[in-house]
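Predict the 3D structure for this chain.
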Amino acid sequence: MVNGTKYKVIDRLLYYRLYSGRTMIGSGIFMSPQFILAIIGSPGASLVIWALSGVVALFAALSYTELGTVIPESGGEFIYILRIYGSCPAFFAAYTTIIVLKPFGITVAALSVAEYVMAPFYPDCHPPELVVKCAAAVTILVVTIVNVINVRVAIRIQVIFLVAKVLALTVIVTGGIVKLVQSSSVIVENLKVENAFKGTQYSFSNLGLAFYQGLWAYAGWYNLNYVYEELKRPEVNLPRSVIIAVSLVTGLYLLVNVSYLTVMTPKELMSSSAVAVTWGNKVFGSWGWIMSVAAALSAFGSLNGSYYSGGRVCFVAAREGHMPDILAMAHVHRLTPSPALIFTTIISLLVLIPGDFQSIVNYTR
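Done. Predicted structure below.
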């Protein structure tokens, strides 16, 4: 609380225990598989990248958890750098997060939603770039309105879209299990030991780019640290939340990728702009559009969670004197950091104009 401004404390245990998982499971698992496979060159190596990315995310989450319990304040890496190293390094960290990392991440998630919303309308080709960007802009504005109006509305949306995420990924995993039992020719080509690692690219540049894409899919493990002051008993629930969430998400991502590889050849997977839609069309035929809707809802839920935390970073930086004072203000009745959220929206929309999914992910990672 500063200058009479304070957050609305979240006292719903289920919400913050699942928050990390909800923000992690979003655009990454639906948009990164084709890029990882194209970069690393083989199905087996792509699965290794997914697994190792999960391990890295878990270690990073544990480090953040330790920092969060020692420095019990909202703001994530900004507040930690400020308290440990001082004002100057924290200033650069704040501007990097507020101007680059968070807006770029929001833009990528919005592009993912737009790709999946538009995919059923363009079944034989990629949706036009202008159409996708317009849909992404509308998505960002909708999320802004929701988060500015009411914190609890944003929380309820998170819970609703969590159901969509779980259902979509459960359907994909189940479909993969069925295909594994049937032992199709695609499975033999992709997952048989002698074929799994054929064509792997071992150069440092390829490995680095593949990890960029993989780690993007796990982005979200740190979001609880941004809203630390809004949690109840965070010293107990923060460690539990991140350990359970990252571990479960890692296992789920591996199963989903195996499912993709049981249905699609590497060439089909790499050429797809919306992997879940291509998977759905092959498994469900004319009903494949259902996967497009489910993937879009999943990405929207992740975007909402990232947006929720991103506004808090800007709020805390302004509260500490590193951003204009107006960004440290909150709505008198709703207790939402409206100026900070609107500022994040403006930057995200500016990033959307020249950017595309892969270039933004590679830049921000």
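Confidence is low (pLDDT under 50) at residues 1-14.
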